[in-house]
Amino acid sequence: MKRISTCLTFCFLAAIFPAGVSAQAGGVATATPKTSPATHHAAASHLDPALLHPSTLKATAPDEYEVTFKTTAGDFVVKVTRAWAPLGADRFYNLVKHGFFNDAAFFRVLPGFVVQFGMSPNPTVNAAWEKATIKDDPVIQSNHTGYLTYAKPSGPPNSRTTQIFISLGENGRLDSDGFAPFALVTSGMDVVQKLFSGYGETPNQAEIAVEGKAYLDKNFPKLDRILSATVTSPAPAAPVHHSATAPAHKPPATTTPQ
Predict the structure, then answer these.
(1) What does 152-208 look like in DSSP terms, one character per residue?
(2) Taking the CB of the first residue and of the last residue of the chain, which one, N or C, has fewer CB atoms within 10 A?
């Protein structure tokens, strides 16, 4: 793994830099892909149409909630505390509820530093969320091992979208750069620590944006991925079935409601 000796914020520049824009991260240029999402088959089946309209996903998250990730390496559970970073917690809640992370890969795994995910396997979805930014949250918690934080470029503020990293070590040095944790892994951190890391930072995030799952399956088949991410606590409310008020007298058996 390359030493993180340059400015830490540059390490995250390539993490969410929009597809189609050349950028440098740690002195390595990210090539601009020559394809477009329209030329590729949609990767994910059973796509929630709402994922193509980010502006409609504005639900307020519970004060605390848990998300269970089922992955190819095993399961882990994340607890979100909205007070830590309300905007980040709300965005994560909406993404999970609508299946954004399903079948997404852990495409950047640097042992002792971070594991990163949050690019859809579906190029059309990536295009829809490319500019769906949220404002920065104040940094209340520190980036300890197991804490979840949004990746963001080093330059413009208020540029978080969908990419998230889990700290694999003590990354408190990121706090001063505005990386605001919103959740932590409460069980299964051993699973997170063993996610496949053999490709390092090689997967090209611009290519992921425009080719999605097809690009990763062809070039990086050993990457672990998310089978499902589900809000498991508080449990979804059960449907309420309202019974009609009993009439004062028993109607004839052949009577139907009007």
Answers:
(1) --SSSSS-B-S-EEEESS--GGGGGGT----EEEEE-HHHHHTS--TTTT-S-HHHH
(2) C
Q: Could you tell me the residue range of the domain that residue 90 belongs to?
A: 64-233
**CA–CA separation, 18 and 256 (whole Å):** 60
Asked, for residue 79, whether it belongs to a domain, the answer is: yes
Q: Is residue 208 part of a domain?
A: yes
Q: Is 83 exposed, middle or buried (0-12, 13-18, 19+ CB in 10 A)?
A: exposed
pTM recorded for the entire structure: 0.78
CATH of the domain at 117: 2.40.100.10
Phi and psi dihedrals of 95, rounded to 5? -60, -45
Q: How many domains does the chain have?
A: 1
pLDDT mean by block of 10 residues, the chain; 258 residues: 37 38 27 41 69 98 98 98 98 98 98 98 98 97 98 89 98 96 98 98 97 98 98 75 50 39
| CA pair distance 32, 8, nearest whole angstrom | 23
